[in-house]
Design brief:
This protein has 165 residues and is α+β, with helices and mostly antiparallel strands. 29% of the residues lie in helices and 35% in strands.
């Protein structure tokens, strides 16, 4: 078997990507919960200045996407999904790294996210990227499924080491 050396390129999402993002969210993230990340909701994120919506591209194919919002001290990874044929090829890690960079530059202290409690693969993926599981929230999804909240400390300007003279 020949190793896959196709690089992942990250670009900002465009209006033409909205339907694809919404459908990938429905199929890869929201299965069994109802569809909340519809086209209008994704489009709203695309238009908000405090959000980045990005697409990972391998060759000429959209391979995955991520949506993150940025506040003064915390960023929140709202969604991350990778097409099944591109899983375990570095797409997810590339998307997260790209989305974390503006947070680091802005001095944001922490990134948080939620993952389904019954998704050990996603939880292990985020732990490999330096995220720690900080709490379980029963009934978080549609009142019937628990999530695990994860967070990663970035350092930010509120960090005592970063604030030292």
């Amino acid at each position: 078997m020949t190793p896959d050396t196709t690089a992942t390129t990250i670009r900002f999402a465009a209006a033409a990507d909205v339907a694809w993002i919404a459908e990938l969210s429905r199929d890869r993230i929201e299965g069994g919960l109802g569809w909340s990340w519809t086209r209008p909701r994704v489009l709203r994120c695309l238009q908000q200045p405090e959000s980045n919506v990005v697409v990972g591209v391998r060759g000429s194919e959209r391979a995955g996407f991520g949506i993150m919002t940025y506040g003064d001290t915390e960023a929140h990874l709202l969604l991350l999904a990778v097409q099944p044929r591109h899983v375990r090829r570095g797409v997810g890690a590339a998307l997260v790294a790209w989305l974390e960079r503006p947070a680091v530059v802005a001095g944001i202290e922490r990134v948080s996210l939620e993952a389904r409690q019954d998704n050990p693969g996603a939880r292990a993926f985020y732990r490999r990227l330096g995220y720690a599981e900080i709490e379980v929230l029963p009934g978080y999804y549609s009142g019937r499924e628990a999530c695990v909240r994860l967070a990663k400390q970035l350092g930010g300007c509120g960090n005592s080491a970063a604030a030292a003279p």
